[in-house]
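Dear support,

I submitted the protein below through the web form. The confirmation email said the job was done, but the results page showed an empty box. After a refresh the structure appeared. I'm attaching both so you can tell me whether what I see now is the final result or a partial one.
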Amino acid sequence: MNLGRQLQQRWSLQNPIMGELPVFPTFSIGLATYPEHGQDAKSLIECANTALTKAKAQGRIQFCAYSSTISRQIQERMELNAELAQAINHHQLRLVVQLQLHRNGQLVGGEMLLRWTNRMGVAVPPSHFIPLAEESGMILQLLPGD
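What the results page shows now:
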């Protein structure tokens, strides 16, 4: 059993207002250690907060220890988020039609696919930018207007 589940079970509460209905609090934990992750309180708190952000992104009841990889991933995600916002504002995303053909070559349908080539000319996979657009709320800007 993981640490998060053990803590949740240990700290489950009987809520007297609700009678016998148990209450199971959820939480996420971000960990940073001295001296590996920082030499002062401010650095340690920043690293622990970075680890906490990663733990929360993984779902409820998660535990995450800080690593420089986490900082790099968060930084890359923030940069991609800013680039996506600019791409939307500058109409740099495009729709592509992918035809669906029967074995005999007859057209049976098609689908519209959203594609993005960033300002450096690199195609950004939809698996990278669509979830980011959904999480940030920018997905609504990608929907066709009236």
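Response: this is the final, complete result; the empty box was a page-load delay. Residues 68-89 form the longest helix (22 residues).
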